[in-house]
Amino acid sequence: MPTIPVMNGAGTLTRHADFASRYISARHVDIWCPPAYGLVPEIRYPVIYLHDGQNLFDPASSFIGVDWGLDAAMRRVMHDARLPGAILVGIWNSPLRLREYLPDTPLRNPDARELRAEFVREAGEEPLSDAYLRFLIEELKPFVDATYRTLPESAHTSIMGSSMGGLISLYALLEHPEIFGGAGCLSTHWPIGREALVDALGTALPGAGRHRLYFDFGTETLDATYEPYQQRMDEWLRKAGYEAGRDWVTRKWVGAEHSERAWRARVHIPLEFLLRR
User: Fold this and answer.
1) Which 8-state DSSP code applies to residue 116?
2) Which of the residues 22, 48, 74, 234 has the least number of beta carbons within 10 Å of its own beta carbon?
3) Element spanning 24, H or E
């Protein structure tokens, strides 16, 4: 597996090209380490795993030519919140993104049978999200923990994404609460599963107190359809005992669209929420 340094300076970004898996197709994995990583060898860092990795660090590979500016956002959090930062793991998506990011188990419920059949008709085949999670849990995380100076415990391991990446981030925490202590779900694409998916995920929430969940949505373009679904999820969070502002946050961004440009403008907020303990 080639290892290609693609940027140095304010932190170091390394590309693990064509990272192989037994479960999903090979893809690039970009890993950013904070500026002090190579200077202070005794420090170990939290880790945040992020989907749609090609959109995070480099505008040349990003979907609309605007990346999240994730490294700059993390440096901002480190400066403003006086936090040591985190190792950021950007997992590139594949042509099977929709199938890999759609939560599978909730669509196996009897009341979601029609919804699952609808998805299979549109996507061509069954969801692959369980295979994607096996890649994360059994292959990628062990590699990251063995190769980098991480804090491997769940309290220091989070997962984040936008749109469908928000769905798979929440699903990852629900399926593996012993691995992921936090999830950042930006502009979560609830409509693909409608109320049935929201309710199935809501009933599977782990008990409050050991996990942190961040949700947000805008009010323009695709995000304009999200608020009723998010409000429904918020009710499930309250029922599960999550306290707003402490272990759960939902933010509404008036005027924000569904794009990397919008997520770039606010990604520092979920980063700080997930890292501040």
Assistant:
1) H
2) 22
3) none
117 contacts: CB under 8 Å, gap ≥ 6: none
Say if residue 207 is exposed, middle or buried (CB neighbours under 10 Å; 0-12, 13-18, 19+). Answer: exposed
> DSSP states of 161-194 as a string?
EETHHHHHHHHHHHH-TTT-SEEEEES--GGGTH
| For residues 53-78, average pLDDT | 95
For residue 251, the model assigns a pLDDT of 98
Return the H-helix or E-strand segment holding 238: helix 227-239
Q: Which domain holds residue 97?
A: 3-275
Q: Are 64 and 260 in contact (CB under 8 A)?
A: yes
Look at residue 116 in the predicted model and tell me its pLDDT.
79
Coil, strand or helix: which one is 69? coil
Distinct helix (H) and strand (E) counts, the chain: 10, 9
Supply the DSSP symbol for 45: B
Provide φ and ψ at 6, rounded to 5°: -110, -5
Strand 47-50 to 87-91 pairing: parallel
pTM over 0.90: yes
The pLDDT-based confidence of 155 (bands split at 50, 70, 90) is very high
Say how many domains are in the chain.
1
Domain CATH number, residue 176:
3.40.50.1820
Taking 3-state DSSP, the helix, strand and coil percentages for the chain, each rounded to the nearest 5, stand at 40, 20, 40
Give the sign of the dihedral formed by CA 106, CA 108, CA 110, CA 111: positive
